[in-house]
Specification:
The protein is mainly alpha-helical. The chain contains 5 helices and no strands. It is elongated. InterPro entries: DPS_DNA-bd (IPR002177), DPS_DNA-bd_CS (IPR023188), Ferritin-like (IPR012347), Ferritin-like_SF (IPR009078), Ferritin_DPS_dom (IPR008331).
Length: 159
């Protein structure tokens, strides 16, 4: 498949595909961090955060699949090696073992902020390329993160 098959110009859509692969790399690191937080949460907020982290990593797993499939829809291969994810991601790995519950929330809020920045870049690039499909997909993902950012900030007592 290539972009022409869905009435898009391949050259105009190339920046979108490149950004989608960067986004995919960042999402993989975020996903693994969510899993680590879910597995290693301890303390008085265990029951609340254990469930929330599972909700977030389940959503991230589905999001990752949609991102990769969109890259394929646009005619390019998605990144699929952890080495690429680690080297290309602006989101960095952390050791969640022994990390305090609210420190986990802070780390995830930081990730979500970076992902929202990438989403805003993707919205602009996809609009410029006339790629409404990518634009719609990314907008849905961003809305989910915006809502969960508000919820996690409220949980942590932040403004």
């Amino acid at each position: 498949m290539d972009a022409k098959a869905i009435s898009l110009n391949e050259q105009e859509v190339k920046p979108v595909v490149d950004l989608l692969n960067d986004y995919l790399a960042n999402y993989h690191i975020h996903y693994q961090k969510l899993r680590g937080c879910h597995w290693n949460i301890k303390g008085q907020n265990f029951f609340t955060l254990h469930v929330k982290f599972e909700e977030l990593y389940t959503n991230a797993q589905l999001t990752i699949d949609e991102i990769a499939e969109r890259v394929l829809t646009l005619g390019k291969p998605p990144h699929s090696r952890f080495a690429d994810y680690i080297s290309e991601s602006s989101i960095k790995e952390i050791d969640t073992i022994g990390l305090a519950d609210l420190a986990m929330v802070d780390a995830l809020l930081e990730d979500m902020g970076k992902l929202i920045e990438l989403e805003r870049e993707l919205l602009k690039a996809s609009e410029e390329a006339g790629d409404d499909g990518t634009n719609d997909m990314v907008n849905r993902f961003m809305q989910f993160k915006e809502k969960n950012t508000w919820m996690l900030r409220s949980f942590a007592g932040k403004k």
